[in-house]
Amino acid sequence: MDLETTENQSTAAVTAIDDYLQRHETKSLLRFITCGSVDDGKSTLLGRLLYDTKLLFDDQLAALEGDSLRHGTQNGELDFALLVDGLAAEQEQGITIDVAYRFFSTDKRKFIVADCPGHEQYTRNMATGASTADLAVVLVDARKGLLTQTRRHTYICGLLGIRHVLLAVNKMDLVDYAQGTFKRIESDYRVVAAQMGIEHVTAVPLSALHGDNVSSRSQSMGWYNGPSLLEHLETVQVEHATSKLGFRMPVQWVCRPNQNFRGYAGQVVAGSIAPGDEVVALPSGVRSRVARIVTPDGDLTRAVTGDAVAIQLEDERDISRGDVIAATSAPPQVADQFTAHLLWMDSAALLPGRPYWMKVGARLVTAQVTEIKHRVDVNTQEKRPAKRLELNEVGYCNLGLDHAIAFESYEDCRELGGFILIDRQTNATVAAGTLNFALRRADNIHWQHTDIDRTARARIKGQIPACVWFTGLSGSGKSTIANLVEKRLHAMGYHTTMLDGDNVRHGLNRDLGFTEEDRVENIRRVAEVSKLMVDAGLIVMVSFISPFRSERGMARRLFEDGEFREVFVDTPLEVCAQRDPKGLYAKARAGQIRNFTGIDSPYEQPERPELHLETEKASLDELAQRVIDSLLAR
Amino acid sequence: MALAAMPDPNGIPRSDAADIGNTDVHTLAASSHLKRLEAESIHVMREVAAEFANPVMLYSVGKDSSVLLHLMQKAFFPAPPPIPMMHVDTTWKFREMIAFRDRRAKETGCRLIVHTNQEGVAQGVNPFSHGASVHTDIMKTQALKQALDKYKFDAAIGGARRDEEKSRAKERVFSFRNAQHRWDPKSQRPELWNLYNTRIHKGESVRVFPLSNWTELDIWLYIYRENIEVPSLYLARERPVVERDGQLIMVDDDRMPLAPGEVPQMRKVRFRTLGCYPLTAAIESDADTLPAVIQEMLVARTSERQGRIIDQDASASMEKKKQEGYF
């Protein structure tokens, strides 16, 4: 080969790749999910789609043939579901557990499809897939019509903002391709979708097994004139709600390579930005101008929604991770109380009043559900009263945060309106939520300034106030020790008071029972009351079983460092039950009392209490003295 | 090359691949799809840097690692990468990989940690006498766990993609591992939007996959567009190989035992993935430039994991290995 020919061919290859890259880049991307009830044939449909669009490699086909013989449900024929049910447990059980992401493209479009599990217990995995989708393919078995899961999945699609549904009425071959069956299911579904705010529904009758109306029109359904499933996916326009909002960027990371440079790195979630633009950092409200938009390929003259950038401002400002940098005209609101929808995803129920971590944008705060306004029955759309949310339930709630945040409603901006809740003990992701709007309540109740402050009140008493929190099983000796401590402090001239679990339940907390959610509220009120008393300058003994770590943690966070003294009164359960001063263990064991700590309700031991009192190893007098010594040592 | 005879589903102009050196023609406009993938990956890397105390990037010298390293430079620019990279060296990697690794670490200013399972070396573990699975388990899976324990990393970034394999297709971007490094595919944390739960207890860790949503083709096109350097093993060259069980194995050094009468032959081959040389099959190819490799990709009828001998025991084997701590 002479040199000239070689060069020509090389240039041809480069041109070919450049052309291809250009088309690859400008082809639009559609992210969709397949969902619906178990056995409606989602995995089979997806496998068929990959097969028909020639996205399978030879070795994958060979593996599929082997797997079909081993685990297949199609008498040795290709079982397309095995292509996507990738986990061994899934293949053994013939079900889909977790969402699988697949990639394919045609001449017209690129696709990322998330195949979602149909079982109710895996709804959270379905929500994972739906959260990033533009469109949902909802499968229905033509023989069965709409099922509970069809409605549930449609509801979650609506909740997460999916506006386009392709209703795939599958297994038409098993109902003799009957038009009437299809029409009935379609009209049933349109009613459901409309209730859930899904505006665009296209219904396609198909058979995933035989390929009817999947990638090409079916010969068996002459009565159907619409597009095949693939044709619709290739052509549907999903308007990416080009946000009306101005520039918004949550700060992910502060870049400080040296003294002379401070950049704020993040992804632009709305609007665009250019050097010279005036911006404000929220929630602090400090203002500046954009000096540079820095990238390794040179500074940018403009960054738009979706870009990952680093921004340098004209002034040195104290801005940190989690803050939102925004355009000064019409910046986002800042608030600490909201209404929100919550999808609960944990087997331990949501308890109002319990603090959870909340991640929104790049921000991590503590949040409590202050009220469940109602639970939504996803099958009927009915609003039901609820005191807690169980696994897979959806609720409409009021939310209180420990810090104000900059936010948008989920409808306007997913990145500043979508959030997750994380359990503070287990670190599990327990809920996904969407912010609706800020509650004005806190705005209108301002802190009243008082001239005499907590320091002054303590000074006149000549003492350092404290909240001494005794926790332990019923009958462990908490109240006895607390009583001894208070008597001695009193004798020494200290100003004290005592909050005892039983006594408070006769008054302030008379309306509360012993369910988990009432116990959380019980502790919340007592913690708030003891804080008022510490503010008054008192040394407060609190004697409460307080079985849950998270509520004791909540109480601790109300106080200044060192003010809260957790005292774990540690007596083994058998000993408490043997003592049984009030006869309660006997009743609980006989089933006459429900939710009794240590019997049918858990006690979570403190992990790092200020004092750990083992009542079997020392006398009550000695233990009381240890409490006093530790208080006076401050 | 037989390109002209192949079906052409993507409408690429059919032309023979070039057989001169790489070209430096990169005249492409800024592009939306790759740019979006890039931004998503950068977002993930910044989350890792911001939320973990002691993260690491696992670097395997392959094309995906090259892309990761490039993204890391972009994510933290103008600061140098704040996350070190670690290579688990089985001592059986292609020689070129090791030289490439050391040079790239120096050029990028990214701190390099190399870990080898010294117990395995002492026992003389190798892919020939111990077999592929034992070798991989001891020198790769166990070695990785040793290294993670030794340095107490709380997050490890890897280059795995969801299009590689069925159990990968199910994995989260932030994938939780318990204190024994095990993956529990039946109870993964839900992962909505781009909100990643990074909270873990002491001893637990997270594997992070910034390239989850990239395909093999995206990787190559990005390497091409960004002019990212990759080991030349990816390009077709005359190399000494032997054919075993239908697979072409390159004789990279004299540790490779030859059967009686077995003589290495020079064949024009390239590699689709890089690993331990005795376990990485080559394919015959004329694609000796990046554009030519990409052109071959577009008509490929064999997925890239086929070149990894370890995957062929049973189709769920990757999931099993991952549960045990394999990356």
Describe this protein with a few key phrases:
heterodimer, A: 634 residues, alpha/beta, Rossmann fold, Elongation Factor Tu (Ef-tu), domain 3, 7-stranded antiparallel sheet, 6-stranded mixed sheet, 31% helix, B: 327 residues, 4-stranded antiparallel beta barrel, globular
Multimerization state? heterodimer
**So how many helices of chain B?**
8
Strand numbers in spatial order across the main sheet of chain A: 7-15-11-12-14-9-8
Query: What's the overall geometry of chain B?
Result: globular
Largest interface: A-B, 89 and 84 residues
Q: Evaluate the radius of gyration of chain B.
A: 20 Å
Question: What would the average pLDDT of chain B be, to the nearest integer?
Answer: 83
**What share of residues are in beta strands of chain B?**
5-15%
CATH C-level label of one domain in chain B: Alpha Beta
Helicity of chain A, as a percent range: 25-40%
**What about the largest sheet of chain B?**
6 strands, mixed
SSE pattern of chain B, N- to C-terminal: HEHEHEHHEEEHEEEEHH
Q: Kindly state the percentage of residues in helix of chain B.
A: 25-40%
The coarse overall form of chain A would be globular
Overall pLDDT score of chain A: 87
Instruction: Point out poorly predicted stretches of chain A.
Output: none
Low-confidence stretches of chain B: 1-31, 310-316
* CATH superfamily grouping of one domain in chain B: HUPs
